[in-house]
Amino acid sequence: MIGLLLMLFLIPFAIAAFVFWICMLVSAIQNKGLTDTERIVWVLVVILLHVVGAILYLFLGWPKRHTPLAAG
Description:
Layout: H1 2-30, H2 36-61
Helix pairs in contact: 1-2
């Protein structure tokens, strides 16, 4: 009984974490507010640290998505 309840919670949580990770990875790849070097670093962080890297990107790298690169 406990195993069933645990699986009913863990499977949706794992799927949600995977979808979140994929969304943050795609966002890091397409983020125009980052330089090429920053983009590569964020993609590596998200890939290597998985959900922790995605959370870090969400709070530290994703806000740059809304700031345009300076000309020049």
